[in-house]
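Morning. Coffee machine broken again, so started the prediction first thing and wrote up yesterday's gels while waiting. Chain of 310 residues, entered below exactly as on the submission form.
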Amino acid sequence: MNRREFHQLTIGAALGGSFLRGVGQAAPPAAPSPADSSGAIRLSFMLWTMDTQASFDHCIEMVAEAGYQGVELVREHQSWSREETARIMGRMRSLGLVFDAMAGMPAGFADPGQSADFLTQLAAQVSAAKELECPKIILMSGKRLEGVSPATQHQTAIENLKRAGDAISKDDMDIVIEPIDALENPTTYLTTVSEGFEIVRAVGNPEIKVLYDIYHEQRGYGNLIEKLEQNIEWVGLVHVADVPGRHEPGTGEIDYDNIYRKLAELKYDKYIAMEFYPTEDPVESLRAARHGVQRAGFDPDKSSRAPKPL
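Came back before lunch.
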């Protein structure tokens, strides 16, 4: 059972309530686009945690109803025709939403044997991101390789990401690299933000940073706040879920109130993306998660919904 399947056991009943409320109701009106305020952040939702339980359109309607500004993709867009893409982009605009980040490249940046494929796939991903007006690409390291030293894979990561930086230099686009904990993926190379920060510092490109997934880092290593304090300038995106279970903040062991307060103190001003399996009505769950961010001193409702120009 993979992580896209597991949540079917936990939220089916909760989603039913949202489906019933949505029948015969008009879609939420387009949200306003006020100017960014100082210190404001934006909230997004990684769609794969709900997309097997509802249609794409219904998922984004729930995200908008909960007061979020962004939606993040994995490979959903790869099956869309040009006509479907145009329709979805229109629907996103009508809901006041943007695609703020997208993942899904098979080739890993830390695999010496995939370097050529990595750059080819990145070019295709950049093209897709432009079409979706999405300013950020999430990249994975690939597998830890038998017979290849960690030092070699670390250096390969630096070299490939330097090339990636050159490849996106004219596209006004950012890259974030995502460590995945070894409990979830025992074969992955990059398992902690600590090495991620070492890599992006060595790359030295301000458009290439780390996706700090609080859930993954807590499962593997902990010490969450100190790593934020020491590396905040290299954090390009934050993902949120609680441990154990990958459910809403407040259902597990992570003190997200302290995490959010620290992010506010450090003047973090990028997206915070929820990547959890709702245990209750999805709209209410997402709304409660938004309120948790607001209690820390952020006000996502005052953040711009306009996409970064491409």
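Residues 242 and 295 are 18 Å apart (CA to CA). Going to sketch it on the whiteboard this afternoon.
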